[in-house]
Amino acid sequence: MHALLAPSAAPRWGYCAGSVVLSALFPDHQSDAAKEGHDAHEVAFAIATGRVRPKNMTREMEEGARLYIDAIQSFNWPSNVWHFEEHTDAHLIHPECGGTPDAWGFHDGTLVIADYKFGHGFVDAVENYQLICYAAGVLPKLDGQQIDRVVFVVVQPRNFHRDGPVRKWEVSYRDLMPHIDHLRTQAEEALGGAPTFSVDGSKQCKYCPGRHACPALQQSAYDACERSDTSLPLVLAPPALALEIKAMQRASDALSARLSGLEEQAFASIRSGKPVPGFAIENGVGRLDWAVPVDQIVKVAAAFGVDISKPAALTPTQAAKAGLDDAVIKQYSQRPAGKIKLVPVNTSRAAKAFGKSESEK
Ligand code: SF4
Fold it and tell me: Distance between CA 153 and CA 165 in Å, rounded?
């Protein structure tokens, strides 16, 4: 049973206080991806604590769990400072806020909050409200001890980000406090009677369970449609260009969140026997794959005079796992530059890149 102010939803209610009430009206159903994530967490917990591995453990789950445990062990702290999957009440934020961090540890003035994500979508460690809620839950347990800094760690084996699958955000205790204060204000507003809805922020509408019924998102999507029809001078000066791109990105986010919410609603309606005019449900087709064991199809193909048994060369990552020396891999591999894309600048990241701490900003 989730708390009313679940840390996992904090990346939403941390920006939109109204989302708490609206989400409660439209509870999320557990998707296959969520079920897989739950299983992967059970595997990680079992390996981290030396318990029996779950029977449904896949190789990918085991490898992901190893990456997560390596990230924790890289701190070189005694094993007894680590706590896995312990519920914490984040009363520093609100009596209704509490959840279960994947792992936390405290040693020599440093608190580490680690989060293991098995999904593909990028999760930033920087100013991650879910992890900040967990920190708010752990801090009172360290009462009386000197806390200098907090390190947030996100381990995401399936996300191929340029910063790698293990990403960290280190912040001083003093610089963390304004984030906790902000979440407290949002929490009080969320459960205080007349919360406001906000589509501005960090894509909080994208997975909001109430997005199909949200008046603020609906208005924002309509505004986006209207704005896309507005005539503008063809050549914009750079400052105007930047503003226009940001406005269009916000509009695009609002439109896709609204559209996906409406599509989900239509899907549920058709499945429950209430047709939606002009729409139907049909099965997509997956990637073509063998329906029989590989050695069986190899023999079948051989009978037809075709050799399909030769495996393709392993990738550098697979070769590393198979034991090929790192130096050899480095010499014979390359990472081609990716497609150039325009990305928004995160002020925290910019400050980090230029060596400024939070307090210097
Ligand atoms: S859809 Fe967006 S604006 Fe509406 S409640 Fe959800 S997070 Fe808030």
Answer: 10
